[in-house]
Write a structure and sequence with these properties.
2 copies of one chain form a homodimer. Helices cover 37% and strands 37% of the residues of chain A. With 150 residues, the first copy, chain A, is α+β, with helices and mostly antiparallel strands. The first copy, chain A, is elongated, with a radius of gyration of 19 Å. At the A-B interface, β1, β3, β4, β5 and β6 of A face β1, β3, β4, β5 and β6 of B.
């Protein structure tokens, strides 16, 4: 019985240490995923985001009237603008990841440049660790910074 | 050893069942927290949100130029409009909670009524289960639905 207790304690200690170690690793991994998807997005290709979104993803942006629910609704939206988005360059500002064991929220400000015009956005992405070990987006929220209202 | 294995399996089965059972309980609990805070908010009192926000909360709304980081920045913003927000009534539409063991994301559309004028919002709240057993907001994102741009 002592052996079992020892094994359990060793396991718990290992899990704890790995959790601490892995938080910065998770942050770096998620930010890299987001940048890779944004690189495709800026060239009119939404597949980067579709490939890393979960079946139950929910989505907000300023131009949809209410939350989109599920990957089919998101795919329909993205396909409707496929090839139409062109960003010359972008800045992903102050990315922050708040991570739990199986979920993580990434927030950042985003400046997208089209020639000399800059479009400023707020973004919140919630990622979830799936059973196959991959991280997938379950919530996306894009909004305009200081929109100039009528 | 057989007894230990049996105990472990019973424990794991119980944890699994509780996790399934508790997901709807977590959703109901979090939606109730949000509504209680909104009820105060609509009467000019931001303390409902401040009381349930974690020290490391991050925050977006359309009128701040970049993400706010931490409860002190959020408190400063809320205190600057304390007593100035008055909502006659509101609708919290299609609230959805996607919950993990220690984090949950709540999304909804929100209609706030001031006399006959309706203001339409998107909202994402990320809640985290704290060590004391309470759920706290670690991320808030409010944005306007279909803003009429200049």
């Amino acid at each position: 019985m002592k052996k079992w207790i020892f094994l359990m304690m060793t396991l718990m200690a290992t899990v704890g240490t790995n959790a601490q170690k892995s938080e910065s690793g998770v942050a770096a991994h998620i930010i890299a995923m987001e940048k890779a998807a944004l690189d495709k997005w800026g060239n009119g290709n939404p597949d980067g985001f579709l490939d890393i979104s979960a079946p139950d993803v929910v989505y907000f942006d300023p131009f949809v009237e209410k939350r989109l629910d599920g990957i089919d609704q998101l795919r329909a939206l993205y396909n409707s603008i496929r090839g139409q988005v062109h960003i010359d360059r972008y800045e992903l500002l102050n990315p922050k990841v708040q991570a739990g064991a199986t979920m993580a929220v990434l927030t950042f400000n985003f400046n997208g440049y089209q020639k000399e015009v800059v479009h400023k956005w707020n973004c919140t992405e919630v990622y979830r660790l799936e059973k196959d070990g991959s991280w997938k987006i379950i919530q996306t929220h894009w909004s305009l910074v200081l929109p100039k209202l009528q």
